[in-house]
Every structure is written in structure tokens, then in C-alpha cells.
Amino acid sequence: MQDILIIGASGLAKEVAYYIKSINKIKPSYRIVGFIDDNPMILNHEIIYGLKVLGNLSDLIADNFDVKNICIAIANNNVRLSIVEKLKEKNFVFANIIHPSVNFDNSNNIGFGNIIADHVMFTCNISIGNFNIFNGSSGFGHDVTICDFNLFGPRTSISGCVKIGNLNTFNLNSSIIQNVTIGNGNTLNLHSCLFKSIKDNGVYFGVPAMKQKF
Fold it and tell me: Which residues are bridge partners to 203 per DSSP?
């Protein structure tokens, strides 16, 4: 088994630890060394989900741990991006953590650093980039393209031939109809359905989802 560190020590990090335990029941793959977290409210050596918080990101950058496999378990897309920028010169390996209940067809392709929760459904000819988070029971149709640093909430539904850029957030029970293109930095709020293509940096809500004015 390979050693792995989880960056983050909140709810998503605990879920990732659970996914890794589930993976190991099928095929022993990773030994979780512990969590890394910059939150000053989380003390070094605190025990969370039976695992120790070993230090912060500065400790990791200083090579205080003899571990190369990393999983960034932080839901905020921009925070994940900033962490990757800080670590990109350190030769870490960003593992894909994929729950064993996920059925991933061999016509699909995937980059690295992705987290895929239990019972996510991918059909065929899907392209996935890097550092995306797919929460439980989400579904993705044929010929979907997903770039980098996106977050898909539980039970997100994406129809076929949808193209998704970078740094987008799709909240709980949100959905997108077929043949829609999504730009970068958008948020689709919970229980909303997007019927049309959108550009960048908008917040959308409703059925059909409309851009919110603040």
C-alpha cells in the first residue's frame, strides 16, 4: 500500500478517508498517514475520524513528511487551485480517489487529483480534467466534457453533450439539459435547472435557472 496525506480536515476530508477505506476493502491501495490543515482552530495532533492532523501546508511544503501521494479534500474550488499552485513544484502525486461503487466505462478518460464519491454515474465518452469533486449519486450523460477545479454537489444531473469549463460550482440537486456550454467561475444553486449556455462568473437560480443580480 502507498502512503497518502489528505489536505483538509473538515467534512469532505472525513468523507475522502471513508472512500479510501472503502477502496482498501476491495483492493488494498493507500495507507492514510493523516490530515494537513491550515485552520488555526484545528490543532496539530488532533484526532479526526480516527486520524491525526499532522501539521499545516507550510509543513508539507517544507518536506516534513516523507509522503508523495496527496489528495486535496477541500470543497472551495479557488482554495484547491491556490493549494495546487503552492505545491506544483514539489513533485507530489495527486491521486484520483474513486469510490468502488462508481462504474467508469473504458471510453471515458480522466486526469488527476479528482475525488469521486459513492454511486456517481458516468455513461460513455466523457472527458474529465483535474481536481474536480463529484459528490454522491451525481449523474453524467454521454459526451460530457469537464475541465478543471469544478465542484458537483450531491445528486447533480448533467445531460449529454454538455461542456463545462473551470472553477464552477453545481449545488445540491442542480441539473443541466443537453447541449449546453458552461464557462468559468459560475454557480448553479440548489434545485435549479439550466436550460441555456452561459459565459463566466454568474450565479444562477430557479427552473429555468436565471442569472441573479446582486
Answer: 187
Using one digit for the tens of pLDDT, what is the confidence trace for 154-205? Answer: 999 999 999 999 999 999 999 999 999 999 999 999 999 999 999 999 999 9
Largest CA distance in the chain: 50
**Rounded CA separation 212/146 (Å):** 24
Signed CA dihedral, 16, 17, 21, 23: sign only: positive
d(CA 28, CA 15): 18
- Residue 137's SS3 state is coil
Instruction: Give the rounded distance of the alpha carbon of 190 from its chain centre.
Output: 17
SS3 58: helix
Cβ neighbors of 66 (< 8 A, separation 6 or more) are: 3
* Rounded-to-5 percentages of helix, strand, coil across the chain: 15, 30, 55
3-state secondary structure of 77: helix
For cell 454521454, what's the residue? Answer: 142
Q: Which three cell numbers stand for residue 67?
A: 509522503
pLDDT of residue 102: 96
Q: Are 187 and 75 spatial neighbours (Cβ–Cβ below 8 Å)?
A: no
